[in-house]
Amino acid sequence: MNANAQALRDAVLQMPYAPSVFRQHLLIDCNGVTKPFRPDPWQEADFSAMDHAWMHAVGRWSGPPPEKRIFWGERPRSHSKTSDIGTMAAWAITFAARPVKGAAFARDERQSAILLEVLEKRIALNPWLGQFLSVQKSVVLNTQKPRPGPHPGPGGSRVEIFSADIGSAYGLLDIDFIIADEVSHWRYPQLWDLIWTTFGKRTNCTLSAIMNAGTLTHWSADIREKMQRMPECYFSRLRGPIASWITEQQLSEQRRGISTEHEFARLWLNEWQSSDEASVFRGPDIDACLDASVEAILV
How many domains in the chain? Predict the structure, then answer.
């Protein structure tokens, strides 16, 4: 066994108790080039804030229950939203202490296919991960056989991916983690309510909601305000494009070619917008109204 293989073997033994080690040893596709995964500081901050919740969800946490069980993340376009959530789902079903179940909801069939593709790429670029995981239609499954005894291991762990329709959320039982992708574009608030009540059934369950900024008339704007005030929620919002892989030239091209300045501000500056483009309110004005600190002062 060469030195690199031995180092990876040693790292895999640490990964169940350190999701950061898992991330450090992942290879990812970056503009068609395979590279080691090196998160930007803002990515690592989000990962670190929720690592304990993920560990608790899959039986790898031995301390008091983590305070933060909910992740509400708002990021501009092309800021690794689905990819980062997919990375943690892959860690969870690979290194759980017991067979666990996850459910991931995307805004539509196309978005659910993107999440599935993220997981497929993780497996394809990291052959060692393929020893654990297999993609089967809309399910990613840990194909290891469960061990007998009090510590059964992760064999049989799975994450199932759904499009955001209400019917798919009925009957969900014993879910250990839930992913809600692009909530600000979901059609039905009832789906969120079903997911929220499913999340509440198990004290170990963690919920990760990630999205681009939306519009004030969408029902998710009200949920957003509730999440900001909830002590169990880690609320993360990136203001403007800050990813190291996005260039000024790319942004300039996007600004020139996108349909309206409102859409550029929503997609790339991550500013919530009024649905009425003729409104006198702009993204920064709306941001001020939504900012928790400003609201606290007004109260």
Answer: 1
